[in-house]
Amino acid sequence: MNPKPPLPVPGLSRRSFLIGAGALGAGFALAGCAAPGGSASGVTEISFYVSKPEVIGYFDTLIAKFHKSQARVRVVRDSTSNMSADFVRNSPPDLGCWNYNFSVVEFVERGALSDLGDMPEAATINPDIKPLLKETADYPGRTSAIPYSLTAASVLYNKDLFTKYGVAVPTTYDDLVAACETFQKAGIAPFFNTYKDTWTIAQGLFDYTIGGMVDVPDFFKRLRAEGTKVDAASSVSFQKDFRSAMDRMVQLGSYANKNAASRGYGDGNLAFAKGEAAMYLQGPWALNEIAKTNAKMNVGTFPLPVTNDPKDLKVRVNVDLALWIPEASKKKEAARSFLSFLMQPEIQNTYNADNNAFGTTKNAPPTTNPALVGMQKYYDDAAFYLGASQIIPSEIPVANYAQSIALGSKPEPVLRQLDGDWSRLALRS
Amino acid sequence: MTLLDRNENDMAVVTSARTGAKKRTSHRRVDKTFYAFLLPGLVLFTLAITLPAVMGIFYSFTNSVGFGEFSFTGFINYIALFSDPSIRSAYGFTIGFALVTVAVVNAVAFLLAIGLTARIRAKVAMRAVFVLPMVVSGIVIAYAFNFLFSNSIPAAANALGFGPLESSLLANPNWAWVAIVIVTAWQAIPSTILIYIAGILAIPSDVYEAAALDGASAGRQLRSITVPLTAGYILINVIIGFKNFLNSYDIIVGLTNGGPGTSTTSIAMSIFQGFTNGDYAYQMANATIFFLIAIVIALLQLRTTRGRASL
Amino acid sequence: MSTQIPLATSTATGELAGTDADSVTTRRAGGRGERVNWPVTIVLIICSLAILVPLYVTLTMAFKTTSQAVDGNAFSLPAPFSVDGFVQAWNLTTFPRSFAISIGVSALTVVGTIILSSFAAFAISRNWNRRFFRWSFYYLLAALFLPFPVVALSQVKLTGLVHLDNPLGVAILHIMFQLGFSVLLFTAFLRSIPDELEESARLEGATTGQVFWQLIFPLLAPMSATVGIFAFLASWNDFVMPSLITSNPALQTLPVLQQIFQTQFSNNYNVSFASYLMAMAPAILVYLFTQRWVMAGVTQGAIK
């Protein structure tokens, strides 16, 4: 830059400065006006929240279909809002389509979701699923949400690698360890773990080992009964009841890919699809992602054996999507009409078939995906559990704790911390 | 933040020096226009800053999740807070991190500032480069570094057979904070350098001439002239840096998001996370405590800088 | 709000502020190139790699194809050279709109900060002996000690209540967080303007408003530039405030979009880096053109 005194002549620079700023401001105003759609008369615009990254595109096509079927309601999809912030500022979406787990607990229990019990769709729900909802969060006397999609998750395995090394699907923990040894000797990572994304640990190793050893609903029922003091001395506690499951988690973690610590969900899908590991602890939502890399991959599923009794085998389920309408919505009727549209059997069942999930209504058809066949039997026998990480309230960063254990922390102090967090939370809420 | 205290002191000095001149006008009635000039800022400020601060303190005595039904719970949030190891560890991490980063940033920036004021080639271009990181958004650069730490560096270390770096620094609960220090320093060093350059250039050159005539070595000159004569600037940089680093948030979001585990969760992060996790009232109690700590630091700063009125 | 850029008062004269001052301050070493300290130059060049390499990686990654980007070798040159990443990032993040919003928020912040804080500073500095004005000054300054997290959550609630949960609200809050710092700068600067100038204007019958607009505000121009640059950088690069305050993600600023799309970028590193680059570039360009002012602003602060 050429030398010039740092203090310029006042008038000129100020004017040009303000003109420039004004021009920018005007541009901004224009952009602001152009952004939200105008409100044509007689049309209600509702916001629809769906954030599951794998199915955003799918819902966009459903929205387009809905727009074609009627002209009264227009749906604007939102996938990125901060849901808590939206509730805090009293402007939640008109219709939510979200995981029904720890993340909705506060919305339900503080009465922020409206009662859908009077909708005909509420009556079609499979009664077996209702306890799962209740176990997660409940507002007495209300149907706060209508479950839309149920997923069952277990171990995804590379059938070709299993065949190649003569490994049978393990049904006991010892078999599983033996299978891991076989793969390791052959230079193949038994598991592909992705510790960089904490949720993958929580839903995978953490939930699977606990679900395979602990009666999850019973555990939480007894834990709640303990009140505000949960520690080593109480009859039930994380440190007592989760201890052996965590030891198994640590042991199985030692069979993971070497670089697990720095890998994320995307890396995992890619690596598993490329045959870099024999097993992958992910739910069915990963199948479509894997297929993007390797469409012809021969994938199977089996529940993770954590004990040596095959009778303990169970799969992890979660209410992957549930529909709800907030009390604060001013367009409940329009939101309900889109909800009814989504709940039509041909639409809901197609969604669940396409996304490897199970239906939630009384007459939903069984799954047809060959990769999921390994879980059907357990699902039919109701040998399933809600993941522990889905029930622990969001105030407790359980996924981060699971990550600590996966990355080498001793389980005892982490579980002790969980007990402490649970007690403190019980105290203050 | 800034050197306001110094300026405040200056102001005090200056105004006291000027009172003589001003006395003349002081008994005159205030022109109402002055209120019109001051009030817009004052009123908006009260609504946008003061009111939320008061609200926050109010909610810290409830069990509110930010919406819906809530009830008063007295000091329960504070009681729970003081027995919460994750809160304690957030404070421990944040304060430790801020101390280390302040030391690193100031040491590096000071040396670079000396280099940048020496007789070097391409001085203008060089300064432009060293100041550049100041204008880059923290979260964006953190994402870029995230890629380097998770992928490039391990890949390079692998190729070279260098064990310690073969796994990602970000995935190591004991060392991930180092990565945060590196990126924070990367971004904070430029403004620190600029202040040091100002300090070094303010030293009259005849002091060095005299020292050189007396045969003082470069190292001796640094110890006996540069450091003591820029002490005021060092103090300023340390205080500004410490205050900024206590609020660390975006770079951590971009690098570790508080992990692995909860090992790099800062105070700001625990407050914001509590918000998305429905722990509104509890984290408002946390924020209130954080505010009290900030006030203590501010008072300390006032005392320290007052003691060094002449820079 | 984490990047409040510090300012130093310096007892030195304005000359040291700009880079252009270097020719003067190269201590009496005669002409250019004479007695260049080569060891220091070389050390500095090596150090500058720490800044240039990450930027180089950002640049090259952005121009790679997805398959090359994923190979983990960040230091290789793009082969083949591809703008795919930009095309995808451009569409995914709706770059033109988010760019316009980022610019709009920053521009409003800059203008609002300069106007409101020069107003307040003028009123305060001319009535310093009155308690109300003096206390107002300390009151505004208190914000410098207030950590943003303390007020953030309540601000979310309040902005929602008054329908300012949008870029306009973000700009207003940005202005409010700049206010204390900027009032401080302006007040310090106003002290250096001799009273006599104003007195004579008043004798000629100018009102306070006229004195401000015709006399004071033009004189404040250099400080306004400094204040404006700080306000621009703080606003443009801010992540946490818009991410919390703006409810409609379609109206988010560029830094926030990087976080929102981080999961959607997935393993398409070329797309993510193209997006990072597009978010960084404007601030870097502004910096290159206003370099002298930025440096002056940081070092110069209150001139006296």
Automatic annotation (TrEMBL), chain A:
It comes from Frondihabitans sucicola. It comes from the Bacteria. Residues 1-31 form the signal peptide. This is Carbohydrate-binding protein. InterPro entries: Bact_solute-bd_prot1, SBP, TAT_signal. The keyword Cell membrane applies. It holds the Pfam family SBP_bac_1. PANTHER family: ARABINOSE-BINDING PROTEIN-RELATED (PTHR43649), POLYGALACTURONAN_RHAMNOGALACTURONAN-BINDING PROTEIN YTCQ (PTHR43649:SF33). Keywords: Cell membrane, Lipoprotein, Membrane, Palmitate, Signal. The keyword Lipoprotein applies.
UniProtKB/TrEMBL annotation, chain B:
This is Sugar ABC transporter permease. It is found in: Cell membrane. The chain crosses the membrane at residues 34-61, 90-116, 128-149, 175-203, 224-242, 280-302. CDD domains: TM_PBP2. It is a multi-pass membrane protein. Belongs to the binding-protein-dependent transport system permease family. Keywords: Cell membrane, Membrane, Transmembrane, Transmembrane helix, Transport. SUPFAM superfamilies: MetI-like (SSF161098). Residues 91-301 form the ABC transmembrane type-1 domain. It holds the Pfam family BPD_transp_1. It comes from the Bacteria. It comes from Frondihabitans sucicola.
UniProtKB/TrEMBL annotation, chain C:
It is found in: Cell membrane. Keywords: Cell membrane, Membrane, Transmembrane, Transmembrane helix, Transport. InterPro entries: MetI-like, MetI-like_sf. It comes from the Bacteria. Pfam families: BPD_transp_1 (PF00528). Residues 99-290 form the ABC transmembrane type-1 domain. Gene3D superfamilies: MetI-like. The chain crosses the membrane at residues 36-57, 99-124, 136-156, 168-190, 211-234, 273-290. CDD domains: TM_PBP2. It is a multi-pass membrane protein. Belongs to the binding-protein-dependent transport system permease family. PANTHER family: ABC TRANSPORTER PERMEASE PROTEIN MG189-RELATED, ABC TRANSPORTER PERMEASE PROTEIN MG189-RELATED-RELATED. This is ABC transporter permease. It comes from Frondihabitans sucicola.
